[in-house]
Amino acid sequence: MPDTARPDQAKASAKNVIPKNAICLWYDTDAEAAARFYTQTFPDSIMGPVYRAPSDYPSGKEGDVLMVEFTVAGIPCLGLNGGPAFKHSEAFSFQILTEDQQETDRYWDAIVGQGGQESACGWCKDRWGLSWQITPRVLIEAMAAGGAEAKRAFAAMMTMTKIDVAAIAAARRG
Questions:
Q1: CATH of the domain at 115
Q2: DSSP readout, 12-57?
């Protein structure tokens, strides 16, 4: 039942809030903290209800946060505190499209600077191990252009951790 709903509102609330399709993200115990971080970091993001376990379960106790609904950058998600059995991998990532270096830096620094880690080619991981691609629009546009322009931009990107917008723009021009 959501923290914010009375027992008689729980069914109506859940029916009206949970989308038909949402991404379910598995966390050990920090789904609520992750959801709060994402919704405070990215625009078009909101926190939804927090659901507590109605009884003890293998990785938690009655009353612990079990699930949390949230939207991150327009994508509906459900965070599940399922315990340590499964970990995030690069097989799933959020790609956040940015308009300029300032926006790229802001998101990159928020993720990496809060206990995350850098990777290559615009990828990084947050402190919960979830992968993010912080991708400037100029890179996507270069790839869409194809040909030599795409090849130059791609070669430049392959040398980067965080994407350098000016370097990609210069590579596009040749």
A1: 3.10.180.10
A2: HHHHHHS-SS-EEEEESS-HHHHHHHHHHHSSS-EEEEEEE-SS-B
